[in-house]
Amino acid sequence: MAENLPHHIAIIPDGNRRWAKARGLPSFEGHRRGFDIAPKICRAARDLGIHTLTLWAFSTENWNRSPEEVSYLMKLYETLIDRNLKEAKEDGVRFYHLGRKDRLPTTLLKRLAKAEEETKDNDRYVLNVALDYGGQDELLRATKKAVELIVAGSMSAEKLFEETGKYHDKYPYYFFKNFLDTRDQPHPYPDLVIRTSNEKRLSGLYCWQSAYAEIYWEPDHFPDFTPEKLRQAVLDYSQRRRRFGGN
Predict the structure, then answer these.
(1) Which of the following is catalytic: 4, 62, 91, 220?
(2) What is the pTM assigned to this prediction?
(3) Rounded-to-5 percentages of helix, strand, coil across the chain
C-alpha cells in the first residue's frame, strides 16, 4: 500500500435496499447484509493504517422511511454495538456517536453511551458512527451552542474566527470547529469520502469538515463493498495531488 494514506475516511454506505431488490429479496435482507459487511470494512481500515473511520448509518432524513424499517434498523444498530464493542476495545478503537441524541430509542442511546464511555481512553483508532446525523443539522446545533455562549457573555463572536491550527498544515482550523460533533478528535476532517452504489452526491455529510475532502464514487452497492475495494479507493487517493487552493 502507498505511503500517502488518508488519516480519516468517511463512508456513505448506500445501496442496501437496491442490492436486495436486484436479487428479489426483501429490503431488510439488504440492510442485514450491509451490517455484516460493516465490521469487515472497519477491520480492513485498521489493517491499512487508517486512524479515523466514519460510517454514516442513519441520516436525519431517514426517519421518513416506514416505521417497520426504522425499527428494524435501530435493532440492528444495537446488535452491531453488542457484537463488536469487545473487539473495538481490544484493538484500541475510540468510539464516537455523531448526530442528535433526542430522537433515538433509549435502548440504543444507552448502548452508544456505553461504547463511548468504555473506549474513551483509547487513542490508536477512532470510529465515528453517524446516527440521526445531518450536516446542516450539525451546523445548526453547533451555531446554537456558540450563540448561547456569546449571548451569555462567555465568548466573543470574533473568537469563532480564530485559527487554532491547520489541516495538513495548509487549511485553517477555526475555533468554530470546537462546536462540531468531531470537536475533540485528532483528525476531525475527512481526507477521503467514499460513497457506494454509484450515487454522486454527499447528501450533507460533514458540510463543514469535508471542504477539501477527496471523493471516491464506488459503483457497487454497499453489501458488495469489500476490503479489497476499500484498498483500491485508498490507492486511488494516494495518487492524487491535494493543493488546498494553493500551488
Answers:
(1) 62
(2) 0.96
(3) 45, 20, 35
